[in-house]
Structure formats: structure tokens, C-alpha cells
Amino acid sequence: RSAVPAAIPIGITVTLFAAFAAKTWFQTGIWQSSEKLWTHTLALNPTCSTADNNLGIVRMQRGDLDAALEHFERALRNDPDNPRAYNNLGGALVKQKKYTDAIARYRQAIERNPQYADAHLNLGSALVEVGRLEEAEAAYRDAIAIDAESPNAHRNLGDLLRNAGRVDEAIDCLSRAASLAADDADSHFMLADLLSARGRYQ
Q1: CA distance to 22, 71, 154, 195, per residue, from 176 (Å)
Q2: Other CB atoms within 10 Å distance of the CB of residue 44
Q3: Which of 66, 100, 116, 166 has the greatest CB tally within 10 Å of its CB?
């Protein structure tokens, strides 16, 4: 016969539950937001590159770019091979319209992780801002080669090709972007505009 497990005394059960609840409450107090989580992590480990990088993201999302830059730069001092920190630093620099500096940071991210699709994508967008369109196209195509399911990469490449007057190529890219992200209004709008224009001039 199967053995019947011994019953746990009620007092012990209540004590265990209370201890678990107290531990859960304590952890919830610390981890209730990502900001508190990573601030707590840095308090325990001031050289944690991941914590600084993630706090930088929080600060950047709030619009506090100076604080974000400080976190990303410190993340890189503690881990000079952190591709995500380079990518995020590039993003903060783009928000400050420091495109040349951002391009350099994106390239450093790619040097450390050549398969980092988002870094290639962001590099392409920064290159567009400074008018280096051939390089931007190459960066977008690199992003697509790494992640063919990225609607952003297809959309951005399609937009670049559209502005260059390469209508058929742009339609192909924007059609792919629209199929990958049905709620991407920009892709659908640009695609419809191109198809309408092509119909008028054929």
C-alpha cells in the first residue's frame, strides 16, 4: 500500500506560512519596481554593470538623460565588453542629438556582439540622421540578416528606400513590415501611400 504522509501539526503549518508571507512581503518591498531592484543590487554590489545599465534605462525612460549617461558610462567602466550598455549609451546620445558619438557607441556594441540586431538597427537610424544613407542601408540589411522577423528593421529600410525613390524595393520592405506587425500604423500608411502613387503613375 502507498504510505500515508504524516500530518504536519497545525501550529507548524501556520508558522511556516507566516514566515513565508513575511519573506514574500519583504522581497516585494524591495522588488516592487525595477528601479528599487537595481538600486538595491548596486547597494550590495557597486560594480554590477547590469544594475547600472538597467538603472540607466529607467532614467532614460523618465527623460533624465544626464543620470542615464552616468549609469551607462559606469556600467562600461565596470564591464568594458558590455554590448547592451554601449547600445543604450548610444540611445541616450541620440536623444541628445549627438549622432556622431552615438554611431561610435553602436559600432562598439557591434564589435563586442556582431549578432546584436538592435545595435545594427539603431546604428542605421543614427546614420540616417547624419545623411550617411548607404551605410544606413547596410546597417538595416545587417539587422534583417540577423533577425528577419524584425518589423522595425523592415520598416526603417523601407522608409529609407522610399525616400530614395526606390519604390518597388520600398514596397517589398514595407509589405514585410506590415505583415510582421499588423498594428504598425507607420508601415501601413507608407505602404498605402506608395501603392496609391504607383497606381496613379502607371
Answers
A1: 51, 37, 7, 14
A2: 8
A3: 116
